[in-house]
Structures are given as structure tokens and as C-alpha cells.
Amino acid sequence: MINIIVYFTGMGLSIFWGTGFTKAEVSIHYPLVRPQQQKWSFSGPFGVYDRAQLQRGLKVYTEICATCHSLKFVAFHNLRALNYDEQEIKSFSNQFAIKDGPNEEGNIFTRPANPTDHFPAPFANDIQAAFANNGAIPSDLSLIARARAVPRPFPNCLTDILKNYTTAGADYIHALLTGYETTLSLEQKISAGKWYNPFFISGESIAMAPPLYDGRIVYDDGSPQTRDQYARDIAAFLTWTADPHMETRKKYGLRVIIFLTLYTGLIFFVKRRIWADYDKGHRS
Amino acid sequence: MHMLSPLQTFTIEGLYSLFRGDREVNWKDEDSIQDQFLSSVDGQAMSKQTRRDFLFLATGVASAVGVSGLVWPFIDQLRPDDDERAVESTITVDISSIEKGMTFTVKWRGKPVMIRNQTTEEIEESRATPLKALKDHYARNANLPADTPATSLARSAGKGRENWIILINICTHLGCIPHVCAGSYNGWFCSCHGSSYDTVGRIRSGPASRNMAIPPYQFISEKVISIR
Amino acid sequence: MIKEKGTYRPKTRCSRFLNHRLPFPRLIHDSIIKYYVPKNLNYFYTFGCILILMLTSQILTGIVMAMHYVPDVGSAFESREHFMRSGRYGWLFGPWHAVGSSFFFIAVYIHLARSLYYGSHKSPREIVWILGVFIYLTMMATAFIGHVLAWSMISAAEVSIAAGLFRAMPLVGSWLYETLLGGYSIGQPTLNRFYVVHSLLPFVLVFLIVLHIWAVHMVGQNNPTGLDVQSERETIPFVPYAAIKYVFTISIFLIFFAWFLFYMPDYMSHADHHIQADIFRTPQHVVPEWYFLPFYTMLRAITFDVGPLESTLFGVMVLTGSLLILLFVPWLDRSQVRSARFRPLYRICYWLFIVDVIFLGWLGSQSVNDVDVIWSQIGTAFYFIFFLIIMPYLPRFEKNWLPASIEEVIHQKK
Q1: What is the pTM of this model?
Q2: Do the Cβ atoms of C202 and C142 come closer than 8 Å?
Q3: Could you tell me the pLDDT band of residue C84, with boundaries at 50, 70 and 90?
Q4: Which of residues 48-67 of B touch C (CB under 8 A)?
Q5: Could you tell me the CATH number of the domain that includes residue C92?
Q6: Is residue C375 part of a domain?
Q7: Chains near C (3 or more Cβ pairs under 8 Å)
């Protein structure tokens, strides 16, 4: 019986794979090149964020990305998780201007941000953002690391469950930011105001100019000031903004799974003990 | 046959007696599980019993731990979240435009704080009130020690600034907002249940039993205060 | 002294007091504690209880989510994010509710597959099966609407597509479309009514499940041999024997659930679910949640017109038909033998059917241009062939051999 099923399924699958992918037009999938899997401090079930890396990533965001990209779901006081103290956060937040009001005269005014505020948006609205950026609206970056996971083909889509591959977003961001100079054999026409990037998820060219180059910002902790390092740090930072409670979640996960494993063992023995009477008695 | 109520079943003792074989089982017409079990084992009955009880006890305790661990987040999620707790608390107020006899309200930590500039007559009257006439003898001023008596000076902004009364405008009875310049003492009157406060915010009549609270504040200049 | 009905004898004064006035203790006793089930039930029969557990989990976490959710198009996405970032245990409840719905469907599919295999849809369990199909349809509606409430890019696209299904109907299509959406396109009215319906449907589910369990208790549980229970010697009381097996399976099921919830919460959903809805943009790949994929494939497979029926309408009919056909299964299956254990030919077709459903699901996850549509059409055709041709006509070619009783089967095993 098993033989028959295997026979039919095998025959079906071989016909399928032999002929199934023939279609008149070539179907193009973006990104043209899949991001390479990188090693991150937060990979795997026991991964944790590297606070120093997150702080560098914050610097990259503030000095490079914040000109165009908002980070609306992150409040300044959330930066406590990066091991900054209250005073540092207060002075950091004061750099940013927030529109507030109405005041006692009924007018809208600008004031320096305080820790309870969220990161302000660089543009007043989407239309202004598009106008300033050749029609492309820079995405909000709070959740970008979770919103850009490139699906992996078989067999990775199944083995990823066992290997706990959750850093697809960080890999994508790193690949995108360092991928501007890679060329492929495909000849693509790039329109004005766009840059060729095969790692981009929505097309072959992206409206964002290459934002990173060696030495662009100064790191205080002596880390290499290379484009690759900047890309890694901002990818880690954006993973944190997308998933600030990852470490807590993994910690609880470990406790729950250990508890459940021990509990399953206990129940197994209880079950055997209860059924032992049944098994023993049923001899007739 | 000895039957159990569901209530007992769900207690650990219930689990015990349940598994101890007081149940009726149909696959064997006469013997209960317990009888069968004991008849098949001889001298080892005692230790087997203890081992079995320990297993069931351990499982019962583990189940209780698991369930309570599961229930806790459901209760805790009702509590205020991070953003509520991080609310900015210090405000500064310019009081130069508040003239004698006038009041001004600001919001501080989600509560109304009223700043009142007393007239000379009101100051005289509050100074003249003996402590014995008050319901609550304590100043309830966060800037002074807790046992300070509720003199007019202790309720005000201090020497030289006795005209300034700054208090949290919430009735100490059940939390309504009293109306200013109302009531028999021309201080505050709470229309919910009729509590009357005098011009420095001390409770005089009605069901409330405490003077209105004074928040921590300081004068950072002659005409500007900061409420922390 | 009031004579007690049945075999329940209350032990304590408290239970006697309650039982005389509202026989709830007797109900619990007769339907759970002293309920007799066939003693040869295997572990696949524990998925019914797992489903009750998942329903409870979804209702409780759903209540928590509803406490923090704002059903306004501007704030819906943000309110959920805010709860997950700043709320107490928000990081736990958000993924719990989402991953929980996936695992609810995993359990339902295993439960469905088990009952198809062992013939639990056949007489006298037709009503049990029909109620089960209604439960499945209600679950799909609830899950679909719940996913929309997150108001992500995928949510907005999903609603447009689903409303489009209704618009494909002749005559009443446009009217239905506007009535369901509450407007000429998706917007605030749609979100409001979806929130209400999503909160109500779980209680409809509870009602249907109560009827489903009641119907099972009326006719008795099926067992892997498909044979009727002939004597009490073939049964054991639910508590403690079957109950402890349930606890064991639940415990293992929860390990898998915990793995996804705590370590891979995004695995079962789509990346675009983390982007706020923008009704002027459609995501590049519109993919429904995985549990809808086989039906999505069947819808996409119909690319040709059939007589007066346009391909869109015919596609909707095929989709609806594939779900409604489940209601007729008790009468489509003409075999005298219940369980596939004694039906070798049917077993082959059954496993080919399972492979077909998985294949249809996989096809649904691929983009349209990647795989020739002929494969979806073959898969869809086999789905209908299984129900409309194999089930009714295969019994003519089967030779029936059955053991005499359940006891004989158990005896042979020892």
C-alpha cells in the first residue's frame, strides 16, 4: 500500500518538477540576489543584543538616517534599554524639536523633546516626504527589520524552524546597505534619481542614495569605521527597534520549554502508572 | 461504590483518592483497581504506594505552578503600561499674571493643580482660625514635614509669600473637583457630597476628613514656580 | 429524600444541595468523569481536547488584546504596537494570540484528517460531522476577520480580495460588496463591524462546540477500528484513563506551541503584516494566512470561462463548493465499513488526498507566474474527484473484511 502511494506521488512530483516551471515569460523575483545569512549577537535561541552595538547603531540612525526616516514607535525613554541613564537620555532628546501646543495664546509652538516623546518625524506628512525624495516615501524604520524578511526557498523554509533563523530582516538591511556596488549580468535600465541595488526587495533600483561609506561617522569606542560595520550596527539597532523585548521573550521561552519538558516527563510516568492497572488486569 | 463530587475531584486530595482506585471500572466485573493492584503485589505494597503518591503529588504541584504562572500575565496586563509611568512630571508656571483674588489651574501628573492669590482679608481670616476649629490638624504640605500643623503659613508658599496657595484641586473625600470661591468659607465647595474648604484649602465641614494636598514645588524666581 | 437520577451519588452536602437545584455536578459526572469511551483510542483522538484548550486560549488572550485595541483606522495598527511595546506582558499576548490561531488550525486539520480516516463522519455521526464543518467555517471567518483587525498592508489587501469575491456574484454582487464593507471601499465602517463580529463569533463557536460534544456523547465515541462498541468490557471511564492521555498530548503540543511563540513568532505570518495599511498601495505578494492556502489555490486555478459563467464567478463557485462539499461527506461516502484500517484501497486514495491538499497549499504560497496553472487545476480536480467520485464509487471495488469486535482486535494485539 505504501508502495503505491509513494509510486504515484513520486511520479507526480517528477512530472511536476520536470515540466512545472515552464512559462512563456521569465518571472522575476525581487530581491534579485538573496541576502547572505550573517552572524549576529542576537541570533539563535540564546542570542542577546550587544548594547555597545546598539548604541553605535543609534548614532548611525541619528546622524545619517534620521534626516529622512522616522522612527515613530520608539520613545526616547525606551533607550534606557541601551544602557543609557536618565540624564544622558534627557540631553539626547533635547536635540530634537517637537511641535506642541496650543500654548496659553492658542498657538502651536516648537519645544525641545523630552524623554516621554517619540522620535519626531523628519517630514510633516507623506506628501512632503515624497516631494523631497523624488516621489519615493522613506519608510518608517521602527518595524523595518520585521517587515523585510525575504522568504527562503525549500529546504531552508523548513530547516529554519529547527535552526531558529529569525534574523532575516537584519540580514536584508545589511545586504541592502552594502550592496550598492554589486553588479549582475542582467542589464537593467535605471531611471534618473535611482540607484541600482540587486538586494532591494521592490525592484532593481532604489530611490535611496547609498547612505554609508567608510569614515562617514566617528565611533567613540574604537570600532572600525567601515561601511560594513555601520551597516551591521544599524541593522542590529533596527532589529532592536522592531523587537525590543526579544531577550525577555527568549528568557521566558527557555523557562516555559524546560518546565513543559519536565512536566511531560511527569505526566508520562503518571500515565503509565494509571494504565499499569489496566494493562495488568487485562489478561483474560 | 464510593463516588466523588466534582469539587473534591479537583483538589489534590481528590486526585489522590481518585487514583487510589475508588472508581468503578467495568472491564473487570468484580475487583476494583485497588484490590487488583494490591493482590498482585506482596510486601512491596507499602513502598510502591509511597512512590505512586509522590509521583502524583509532584505532578499536582507542577500543574498548580504551571497554571498560576499562566494566570499571572492575564492579571498583570491590566496595570498601567510603561508610557503612563514615564509621564513627564515637572512643569513650570508663570504666576505674574495672577492678581489678588484670582485663581489659575494647571495640569500636573494628570491632576488639576490650582494656584490661588489670596486677598489680604482672606489671609487675615485664615490666620485667625484656631487649630481647634479644624477637622484635620495637619498641613498636608509635601514641602514640609508630615507632622506640621495646619496653620495658614504652613499651607501657603511660606513667609513673605503667604498670599500664594498652591494645592491639588481634588476633594479628599471621594475625588471630585471642588468649585473655587464657593461654600460657606469662600474657599472651595465640592458639589458631590457637600464638603467645604476654606481659602487655604483646609476642610471645614462636610464628609471629607483631610485638607487638600499640596504638591512639592518651589519658586525658581519671583514670579515663576516649578511643580516637581 | 429526592431520588437521584442516573448513577451519580453526590458525596458532600454541598454537591447534594447544588445537584437537587441545578444538576451541574451530575452533568460533569456523567459527561466527563464517568463517561465511557472505547479503550482502544489512540493519541489522534486527543486533538478534540487540544482544540478546546486552544479555543480557551484564544478567547482569553483575545479579551486581553481587545482591552488594549482601538478600532480606528488611524490608531488600530498603532494601538496593537503600543500594547506590545509598552504594555505589561504585551510582548507575550500579541504573539500568543497570533501564533495561537495558527496552532488552532493545525489542531483542527489533524482532528479533521483523523475523523475522515476512521470514518467518524459516517452514520450515526452525521450531525457531529456537520456541526464540525460549521465550526470549521466559523473558525475560518473568525481568523480571517481577526487578521484584518491588525490593519496591516496584508489586512487591507485581504479585505479587498474577500469583498471582491462577493462582488463577483451576479445581480446582488455590488450591493453585497457595499453592504459588507459599509462603504464603497474599505474604511472605518468596515473596521468597526469587523471588530464587533470578531468579538462575537468565538461565542458562536462555543455554542457550536457544545452542540458538537453533545452530539458525540449521544451516539458515543468512534474508535480506530470503526466497529461499534458491543459491551461495556470494551470501554474504560474517561477519567482517569483517557484524561491523562489528553494531558500528555496537550503537554507535548504546548512544547511546539511555546517554541514558535517564544522563539519564532513571525514564522507563520508574513513580513508585510508589520507594515501599516496604506489603501493606495498593494503589497507585491498577496498571500493569505497558511490555513487558507489550499482554497486560495483553487480560486486562482480557475482562469477560464465555462459557458455563461465568467472565470471570476466560476472561481468563487469552486471555492464555495470546495467548502460546502464537506457538508455532504456523510452521504457521499457509501462504504459499509467505517475505518480506513480495513479499507486498503480507500487508504491509498486518502493519503493521496492529503498529499493533494498539502500540494494545493504549497501552490498557494507561490506567486502566480512561478508555477504553471495546470498544476493548480490538476490539484483542484483531484480534490473534487476524491469527494464526488472516489468516496461514492470506490466501495463497489472494495472487499469487506471486518473483525468481529473491538475486543477481538485488542486481544489480537496482545
Answers
A1: 0.85
A2: yes
A3: very high
A4: none
A5: 1.20.810.10
A6: yes
A7: A, B
C275 lies in the same domain as C324: no
3-state secondary structure chain B: CCCCCHHHHCCHHHHHHHHCCCCCCCCCCCCCHHHHHHHHCCCCHHHHHHHHHHHHHHHHHHHHHHHHHHHHHHHHCCCCCHHHHCCCCCEEEECCCCCCCCEEEEEECCEEEEEEECCHHHHHHHHHCCHHHCCCCECCECCCCCCCECCHHHHCCCCCCCCEEEEECCCCCCCCCCEECCCCCCCEEECCCCEEECCCCCEEECCCCCCCCECCEEEEECCEEEEC
Give the pLDDT of residue A192.
65
Say yes or no: A255 contacts chain C, CB-CB below 8 A. Answer: no
Shared-domain flag, residues C154 and C303 = no
Cβ partners under 8 Å of residue B147, min gap 6: B138
Do B49 and B153 fall within a single domain?
Answer: no
Task: Based on the fold, state whether residues B19 and B96 are members of the same structural domain.
Answer: no
Residue numbers in C near B8 (CB within 8 A):
11-12
Nearest CB to A23 within list C248, C352, C372: C372
CA distance C414 to C410: 7
Question: Distance from C262 to chain A by nearest Cα, in Å?
Answer: 5
Q: Are B82 and C87 inside 8 Å of each other by CB?
A: yes
**C360 and C303 inside one domain:** yes
| Residue A24 confidence class, pLDDT cut points 50, 70, 90 | very low
Q: How many domains does chain C have?
A: 2
Q: List pLDDT tens digits, range B132-170.
A: 989 999 999 999 999 999 999 999 998 888 899 999 999
In a domain, C21, yes or no: no
Q: Is C358 on the interface with A (CB under 8 A)?
A: no
Closest partner residue to A274 (CB to CB) among B19, B66, B83 is B19
Contact criterion met (CB < 8 Å) for B52 and A273: yes
* pLDDT tens-digit series, residues A230-273: 999 999 999 999 999 999 999 999 999 999 999 999 999 999 98
Instruction: Judge whether B39 lies within some domain.
Output: yes
Residues B165 and B69 in one domain: no
For residue C31, the chain B residues in CB contact (below 8 A) are none
Same domain for B46 and B114, yes or no, is no
Regarding whether C279 and C303 lie in a shared domain, the answer is no
Same domain, C258 and C339: no
Residue B1, domain member (yes or no): no
If pLDDT is split at 50, 70 and 90, which confidence band does B190 have? very high
Residues C149 and C268 in one domain: yes
Which residues of B are identified as catalytic? 193
> Cβ–Cβ of C88/B81 closer than 8 Å?
yes
Domain holding B63, by residue range, is 6-78
- CB-based burial of residue C56 (10 Å sphere; 0-12 exposed, 13-18 middle, 19+ buried)? exposed
Count of CB contacts below 8 A, B vs C? 78
Q: Where are the domains of chain A?
A: 1-30
Any domain includes C3: no
Whether C206 and C108 share a structural domain: yes
Of C286, C312, C336, the domain-final residue: C286
User: What pLDDT does A209 receive?
Assistant: 85
C25 within some domain: no
C339 contacts C226 by C-beta, under 8 angstroms = yes
Q: Which of B55, B87, B104 to mutate: most A Cβ within 10 Å?
A: B55
Segments forming the whole domain that contains residue C324: 298-405
- Please determine, for residue B204, whether its predicted confidence score (pLDDT) is greater than 50: yes
- Residue B208 has a pLDDT of 92
Give φ, ψ of A231 to 5 degrees.
-65, -40
B70 touches chain A (CB under 8 A): no
Please tell me whether the interface predicted TM-score (ipTM) of this complex is above 0.95. Answer: no
Choose the final residue of a domain: C244, C262, C286. Answer: C286
C249 shares its domain with C332:
no
> Does A25 contact B at CB distance below 8 Å?
no
Q: How confident is the model at residue B38 (pLDDT cuts 50, 70, 90)?
A: very low
Residue C36: is its pLDDT beyond 70? yes
Contacting chains of B (3 CB pairs or more, <8 Å) are A, C
> Which B-chain residues 74-103 have CB contacts (< 8 A) with chain A?
82-83, 86-88
